[in-house]
DNA sequence: TTTATCGAAG
DNA sequence: AATCATTCGATAAA
């Protein structure tokens, strides 16, 4: 009963509101959910957290606040058992997804660091490259993009596209509507080769592609990487992973130093790629669930009664309908559970390897799911056997066949994008940890716990099976259930139960309760629960199953991220494991932020027009997020979207003066209790210079909210090491190298101010046609609002020239700095001129441009003429020579006629070709031809 | 009581 | 500044 996770009860998520002491789990030492006590001061508190209670309402300040926003408040379901594993507190936040993907980190990395244009160029090249090699990979036929046509992806389209299933087409590329960042240009996205490849989506009847897709996924399902490579994408994965074992090099400091940054990026890249693979996988399975053959096979399983329950008459009351559906589902899942045999291993969590050896010796379990193609799936429907994943999919098909709106839900199990997670199990318990041999055994024991008895030859596949790996035999191969040499295991291969699978599902189903317009989870095979979203999240210690991304696919192919419905601590725990939750370092220019990436990835699956139901669900999920209880340990407060601790404030962050405490938390049991604040009361403070660069100016008389101590210069010469990268946008950039205040601030530290203490910067106005300038003769124009009164920004490269021509006063606009190395270089963009001159300047610019064009035309014309004359000259020479040599017929005549021209030709002939022989002429001409610019096609003007 | 897990430390 | 490895202590489970 005492769950490792935060326990929640209905309604209010605050301990303070719990009407009475929580039930105990039966252990005398258990105080209820994680030590729940009532103190003398009149507030409830847990061992580490308590809440301020308002006397008048008896509620904590947190809740009072929340009640002011009724839309976020969800009425508790009546009669819910508090400790019921299935539900409870929720909370969740609205993150959405996005995605692109990647693979060649080469390209991605390069793209990241490059300036925009270059970046785009490279992107284009990368795409071209993909196109070139893409099709050759796993399939001979042209790759298909999974989602056809995003409108914004013209370039990406380089890859051959094919029509995809109609439903996909319908929703492709349409903006979500409620999504705020819908306008991101596609060009901003890193869309490396892998994307194209990964996103290959087989059409329904295309077996080949199905296979390819499956294989892709297969790689990841096991443990990333170690699959003998057949396709390029596999190879890629293998290389990336094995090349530097990402988790491993913790030992030596130097290795860490060199690898950490790169390894981090790589981890993220792989994570993304893996996610896309998994999404494709689920999407495909979801399509299979729609298959008529499958549904026809399954439909007979439902009794009439069940079908009736599943389709309640609309004449029933809301409640009646809901209950009917519920019992129908119940019956159906019981039935299904008894009829379906789990004979294979389903998806499981992918883990990083710690070193290459593990990869070399890794092999997939023997009993891995065998449904590679739809035909297999149909077969599984006939025999009602397969992995639990296939089971859930068939169950989904079953319900759909009965007319129930059903979603296929999958908890994606990608490789972690953050360090620190579990790694591949050491394979040889005895050997693995020399220092503590016991550990291996412990591990084995732990694994054994999961294993449901039984001979499982599958779990311990023979190492030798791995084709031709030279080391396979030599290396100790391991099985998770170490002690048993699997192959020799005499035990009866009886009921093949899947050993070692997590007691929580990877795949399950959601059904729509039409009456209440609500989706409810149903897991028939693994936990056998329904209507209990909270029952499906595995504990954090589960190595086989980690709930990080839960994606629900509807029959029409659209999908939605419903993680918040299932994760008990989305904000404080789950989010940290997600691509959209990790601090992808504010490092500017590092491509898409995780959040945008994921949003983008999921948008591909979004419905073009959100329905009312979508809206309702969105609200519901947001409400769940809002209801998430406070973390009870200090670590979870770090970077928490709602709460903040003083101890975690960054050096430039500061609490707003009136910040309210919403509770306290103590580290451990004995604690100086620390106050908990709301994140929204945290402000970022900046130095004067920094504000200035944002177009703001500290008001006169404001006291700095804090003075940043001077940076302790690292001894040992030029430290750098971590200096160059980490300065993300906010803050640090400024105190460091800048033209301003270096000297002033140096002495006592940098005073910093909050935004409230600043006003919009008013640049000195333009007077009498004079534009104010700084000491470098420029004008600072970091943001548009910094344009001085009476001035106008003419953002054109020739503006300066134009202004000069006009004779008006102007100042080049300093719009920012480009930091490469540690030196900032000023970026000038256009000029500022007196407003009244703006039009004139633009006009002149237009004129200059025209002039340029004209001059260019002339130049080309001149060159062309010159070339022609040279050519003619050559012809004449040639003619003359031939005239002399052949001495004949018509030649003579012609020569006579051309006498004048001949002379001219000779005179021109100072260009340098003295050779007057045939060959000389010829070569001369051709040389000229080639040397000419492309534009002059051998003397012809190309307009 | 012992053991495994998790959080805090710094 | 932040991550990482390690230790220690509290707690939950056996």
From TrEMBL:
<feature type="region of interest" description="Disordered">
    <location>
        <begin position="888"/>
        <end position="918"/>
    </location>
</feature>
<dbReference type="GO" id="GO:0003684">
    <property type="term" value="F:damaged DNA binding"/>
</dbReference>
<dbReference type="InterPro" id="IPR018325">
    <property type="entry name" value="Rad4/PNGase_transGLS-fold"/>
</dbReference>
<dbReference type="GO" id="GO:0071942">
    <property type="term" value="C:XPC complex"/>
</dbReference>
<feature type="compositionally biased region" description="Basic and acidic residues">
    <location>
        <begin position="891"/>
        <end position="903"/>
    </location>
</feature>
<dbReference type="Pfam" id="PF03835">
    <property type="entry name" value="Rad4"/>
</dbReference>
<feature type="domain" description="Rad4 beta-hairpin">
    <location>
        <begin position="771"/>
        <end position="845"/>
    </location>
</feature>
<dbReference type="GO" id="GO:0003697">
    <property type="term" value="F:single-stranded DNA binding"/>
</dbReference>
<feature type="region of interest" description="Disordered">
    <location>
        <begin position="67"/>
        <end position="114"/>
    </location>
</feature>
<dbReference type="Pfam" id="PF10404">
    <property type="entry name" value="BHD_2"/>
</dbReference>
<dbReference type="InterPro" id="IPR004583">
    <property type="entry name" value="DNA_repair_Rad4"/>
</dbReference>
<dbReference type="GO" id="GO:0005737">
    <property type="term" value="C:cytoplasm"/>
</dbReference>
<keyword id="KW-0227">DNA damage</keyword>
<feature type="region of interest" description="Disordered">
    <location>
        <begin position="129"/>
        <end position="187"/>
    </location>
</feature>
<dbReference type="Pfam" id="PF10403">
    <property type="entry name" value="BHD_1"/>
</dbReference>
<comment type="similarity">
    <text>Belongs to the XPC family.</text>
</comment>
<protein>
    <submittedName>
        <fullName>Nitrilase</fullName>
    </submittedName>
</protein>
<keyword id="KW-0234">DNA repair</keyword>
<dbReference type="InterPro" id="IPR018326">
    <property type="entry name" value="Rad4_beta-hairpin_dom1"/>
</dbReference>
<dbReference type="InterPro" id="IPR036985">
    <property type="entry name" value="Transglutaminase-like_sf"/>
</dbReference>
<dbReference type="InterPro" id="IPR038765">
    <property type="entry name" value="Papain-like_cys_pep_sf"/>
</dbReference>
<dbReference type="GO" id="GO:0006289">
    <property type="term" value="P:nucleotide-excision repair"/>
</dbReference>
<feature type="region of interest" description="Disordered">
    <location>
        <begin position="709"/>
        <end position="732"/>
    </location>
</feature>
<feature type="compositionally biased region" description="Acidic residues">
    <location>
        <begin position="721"/>
        <end position="732"/>
    </location>
</feature>
<dbReference type="InterPro" id="IPR018328">
    <property type="entry name" value="Rad4_beta-hairpin_dom3"/>
</dbReference>
<keyword id="KW-0539">Nucleus</keyword>
<feature type="compositionally biased region" description="Acidic residues">
    <location>
        <begin position="176"/>
        <end position="186"/>
    </location>
</feature>
<feature type="domain" description="Rad4 beta-hairpin">
    <location>
        <begin position="685"/>
        <end position="764"/>
    </location>
</feature>
<feature type="domain" description="Rad4 beta-hairpin">
    <location>
        <begin position="626"/>
        <end position="683"/>
    </location>
</feature>
<dbReference type="InterPro" id="IPR042488">
    <property type="entry name" value="Rad4_BHD3_sf"/>
</dbReference>
<dbReference type="InterPro" id="IPR018327">
    <property type="entry name" value="BHD_2"/>
</dbReference>
<dbReference type="GO" id="GO:0000111">
    <property type="term" value="C:nucleotide-excision repair factor 2 complex"/>
</dbReference>
<dbReference type="Pfam" id="PF10405">
    <property type="entry name" value="BHD_3"/>
</dbReference>
<dbReference type="GO" id="GO:0006298">
    <property type="term" value="P:mismatch repair"/>
</dbReference>
<feature type="compositionally biased region" description="Low complexity">
    <location>
        <begin position="92"/>
        <end position="114"/>
    </location>
</feature>
């Amino acid at each position: 009963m005492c769950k490792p996770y935060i326990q929640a009860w209905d309604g209010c998520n605050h301990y303070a509101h719990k009407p009475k002491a929580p039930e105990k789990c039966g252990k005398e030492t258990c105080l209820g959910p994680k030590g729940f006590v009532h103190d003398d001061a009149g507030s409830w508190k847990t061992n580490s957290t308590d809440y301020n209670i308002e006397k008048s309402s008896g509620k904590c300040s947190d809740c009072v606040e929340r009640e002011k926003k009724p839309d976020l408040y969800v009425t508790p379901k009546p009669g819910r058992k508090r400790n019921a594993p299935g539900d409870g507190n929720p909370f969740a936040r609205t993150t959405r997804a996005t995605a692109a993907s990647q693979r060649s980190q080469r390209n991605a990395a390069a793209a990241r660091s490059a300036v925009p244009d270059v970046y785009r160029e490279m992107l284009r090249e990368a795409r071209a490259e993909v196109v070139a090699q893409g099709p050759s990979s796993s399939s001979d036929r042209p790759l298909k993009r999974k989602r056809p046509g995003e409108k914004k992806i013209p370039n990406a389209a380089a890859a051959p596209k094919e029509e995809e299933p109609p439903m996909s087409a319908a929703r492709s590329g349409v903006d979500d509507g409620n999504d705020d960042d819908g306008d991101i240009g596609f060009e901003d996205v890193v869309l490396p080769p892998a994307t194209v490849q990964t996103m290959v989506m087989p059409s329904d009847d295309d077996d080949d592609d199905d296979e390819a897709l499956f294989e892709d996924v297969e790689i990841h399902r096991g443990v990333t990487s170690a699959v003998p490579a057949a396709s390029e994408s596999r190879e890629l994965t293998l290389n990336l992973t094995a090349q530097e074992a990402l988790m491993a090099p913790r030992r030596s400091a130097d290795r860490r130093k060199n690898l950490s940054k790169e390894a981090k990026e790589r981890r993220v890249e792989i994570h993304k790629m893996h996610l896309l693979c998994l999404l494709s996988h689920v999407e495909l399975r979801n399509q299979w669930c729609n298959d008529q053959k499958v549904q026809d096979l399954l439909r007979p399983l439902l009794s009439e009664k069940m079908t009736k329950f599943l389709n309640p008459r609309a004449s029933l009351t809301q409640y009646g309908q809901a209950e009917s559906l519920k019992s129908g589902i119940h019956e159906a899942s019981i039935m299904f559970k008894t009829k379906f045999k789990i004979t294979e291993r389903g998806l499981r969590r992918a883990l990083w390897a710690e070193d290459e050896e593990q990869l070399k010796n890794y092999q997939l379990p023997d009993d891995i799911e065998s449904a590679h193609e739809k035909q297999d799936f149909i077969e599984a429907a006939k025999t009602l056997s397969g992995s639990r994943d296939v089971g859930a999919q068939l169950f989904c098909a079953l319900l759909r066949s009965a007319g129930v709106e059903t979603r296929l839900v999958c908890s994606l199990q990608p490789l972690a994008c953050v360090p620190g997670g579990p790694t591949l199990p050491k394979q040889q318990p005895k050997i693995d940890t020399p220092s503590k041999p016991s550990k291996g055994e412990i591990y084995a024991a732990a694994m054994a716990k999961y294993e449901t008895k039984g001979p499982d030859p599958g779990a311990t596949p023979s190492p030798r099976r791995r084709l031709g790996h030279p080391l396979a035999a030599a290396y100790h191969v391991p099985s998770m259930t170490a002690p048993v040499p699997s192959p020799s295991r005499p035990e009866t291969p009886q009921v093949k139960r899947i050993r070692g699978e997590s007691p929580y599902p990877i795949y399950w189903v959601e059904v729509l309760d039409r009456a209440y317009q609500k989706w409810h989870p149903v897991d028939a095979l693994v936990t056998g629960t329904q209507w209990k979203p909270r029952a499906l999240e595995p504990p954090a210690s589960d190595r086989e199953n980690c709930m990080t991304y839960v994606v629900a696919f509807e029959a029409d192919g659209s999908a939605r991220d419903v993680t918040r419905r299932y994760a008990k601590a989305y904000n404080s725990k789950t989010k940290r494991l997600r691509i959209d939750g990790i601090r992808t370092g504010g490092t500017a220019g590092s491509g898409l932020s995780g959040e945008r990436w994921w949003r983008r990835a999921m948008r591909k699956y979004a419905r073009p027009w959100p329905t009312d139901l979508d809206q309702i669900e969105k609200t519901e999920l947001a409400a769940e997020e809002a209801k998430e209880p406070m973390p009870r340990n200090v670590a979870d407060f770090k970077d928490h979207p709602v709460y903040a601790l003083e101890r975690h404030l960054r050096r430039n962050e500061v609490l707003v003066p009136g910040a309210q405490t919403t509770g306290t938390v103590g580290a451990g049991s004995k604690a100086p209790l620390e106050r908990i604040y709301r994140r929204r009361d945290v402000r970022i403070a900046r130095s004067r210079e920094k504000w200035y660069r944002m177009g703001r100016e500290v008001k006169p008389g404001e006291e700095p909210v804090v003075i940043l101590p001077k940076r302790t210069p690292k001894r040992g010469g030029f430290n750098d090491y971590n200096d160059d990268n980490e300065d993300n946008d906010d803050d640090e950039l400024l105190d460091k190298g800048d033209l301003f205040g270096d000297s002033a601030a140096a002495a006592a530290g940098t005073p910093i101010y909050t935004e409230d203490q600043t006003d919009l910067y008013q640049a000195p106005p333009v007077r009498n046609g004079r534009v104010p300038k700084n000491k470098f003769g420029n004008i600072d124009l970091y943001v548009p609002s910094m344009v001085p009164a009476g001035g106008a920004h003419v953002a054109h490269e020739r503006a300066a020239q134009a202004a000069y021509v006009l004779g008006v006063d102007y100042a080049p606009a300093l719009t920012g700095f480009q930091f490469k190395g540690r030196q900032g270089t000023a970026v000038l963009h256009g000029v500022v001129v007196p407003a009244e001159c703006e039009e004139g300047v633009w006009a002149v610019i237009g004129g200059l441009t025209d002039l340029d064009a004209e001059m260019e035309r002339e130049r080309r014309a001149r060159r062309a003429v010159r070339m022609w004359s040279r050519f003619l000259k050559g012809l004449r020479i040639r003619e003359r020579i031939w005239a002399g040599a052949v001495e004949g017929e018509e030649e003579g005549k012609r020569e006579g006629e051309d006498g004048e021209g001949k002379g001219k030709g000779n005179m021109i002939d100072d260009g340098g070709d003295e050779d007057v022989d045939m060959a000389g002429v010829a070569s001369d001409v051709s040389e000229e031809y080639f040397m000419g610019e492309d534009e002059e096609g051998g003397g012809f003007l190309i307009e």
